[in-house]
Design brief:
single chain, 348 residues, alpha+beta, Phosphorylase Kinase, domain 1, Transferase(Phosphotransferase), domain 1, 2 domains, 3-stranded antiparallel beta sheet, 11 helices, globular
Length: 348
């Protein structure tokens, strides 16, 4: 039975076709919107979990963030189409991107012990810098705060989308969220995020630097036995040059990566646009051609001709782990003092 024939749950004007994932604050669904004359559009629905919906302060924050995300209109940002509430359930509807996030791409490459071609890495990261710069320059000065492989999707058409600005905060609201629940995935946080300092656009640049490092090495950079040790590695660890992992990596690209990963934010690129311009110059000087068309060909070669999920029976799809390099520790070693504090065996 295909999902087209599967039982549906209605959420406002949307039919929930398939549950995709669950997070701390919301569930993610594939949904279908229909209209007159056979109009049909598939979207991704993020719905507040019932236990969270009882907290009106949280609901208001969720809706504020959704409205903020809905104000972003850029080719490399997944569009928020709609914000709704029905029978006490709150949700927003986002553009559906038919593709794979970078976790899946990295997992695929890691399993085959392959490096990703530099031209494809550049296509992906240049798109991400463009998306982030647009958000940073928005009148609300939006900082994503969760730039990670999970939130960068490569479509089967070769287009790259940054998703989930739903936890982003405008810079002028930042003080409201400095305490309390940690924002973002720990292994992709900046040093200032880890210690609870205010963040600005340079925090996103550090996080994108982690993503770029992992794309060129196909290895996790920061990963330890628990969140505390991972943050200790981010705050105090020494980052080895990526050419140690990938011999032959161009020195210019290595320098760009290490600048993005500078511990002090003043030593990083000042803006995502500055980082994008330096990457563009690197590509030009090294005759590296970036192309969404060629990236689309690479995606099809990697994953095959994959139909849209509403055309496939959910039971027929194979569940696979998306924690790439899941059995290995991160490249950056956890400081000995942190290991002793948690009575963990030494990483040496």
């Amino acid at each position: 039975m295909t999902t087209a024939n599967a039982p549906k749950t209605q959420l406002g004007r949307y039919q929930l076709v398939r549950h995709l994932a669950s997070g701390g604050m919301a569930d993610l669904w594939l949904a279908r919107a229909t209209g007159i004359e056979g109009f049909e559009r598939h979207v991704a629905i993020k719905r507040i979990r019932k236990e969270q919906a009882r907290d009106q302060r949280f609901v208001q924050m969720f809706l504020d963030e959704a409205r903020l995300a809905a104000s972003l209109h850029h080719n490399n940002i997944a569009t928020v189409h709609d914000i709704g509430q029905t029978q006490g359930e709150y949700f927003f509807a986002m553009e559906w991107v038919h593709g794979e996030d970078l976790r899946k791409i990295l997992m695929h490459a890691s399993a085959r012990e392959q490096y990703l071609p530099i031209e494809h890495v550049m296509t992906i990261v240049l798109a991400a810098t463009a998306a982030l710069h647009y958000a940073h320059e928005h009148k609300s000065q939006i900082v994503h705060r969760d730039v990670s492989p999970a939130n960068i999707i490569v479509g089967y058409d070769g287009n790259v989308k940054v998703v989930d600005f739903g936890i982003a905060k405008a810079a002028h609201r930042g003080k409201e969220t400095q305490s309390g629940a940690m924002k973002g995935k720990v292994a992709y946080m900046s040093p200032e995020q880890c210690v609870g300092q205010p963040v600005d656009r340079r925090s996103d640049i550090f996080s994108l630097g982690i993503v770029l490092y992992e794309l060129v090495t196909v290895r996790r950079l920061f990963k330890a036995a628990n969140d505390f040790l991972t943050m200790s590695a981010i705050i105090h660890g020494d980052i080895p040059p990526p050419s140690i992992i990938r011999p032959g990596l161009p020195r210019e690209l290595e320098a760009i990566i290490m600048k993005a990963l500078a511990h002090e934010r003043d030593d990083r690129f000042r803006t995502a646009e500055e980082m994008r311009a330096v990457l563009e110059r690197f590509c030009t000087a090294n005759h590296i051609r970036t192309s969404s068309t060629v990236l689309a060909d690479y995606m099809r070669a990697m994953f095959g001709q994959k139909p849209e999920p509403w055309l496939v029976d959910a039971a027929e799809e194979l569940e696979v782990s998306i924690d790439f390099d899941g059995t290995a520790s991160g490249i950056v070693r956890v400081p000995e003092a942190a290991l002793k504090r948690h009575a963990m065996p030494s990483s040496t």
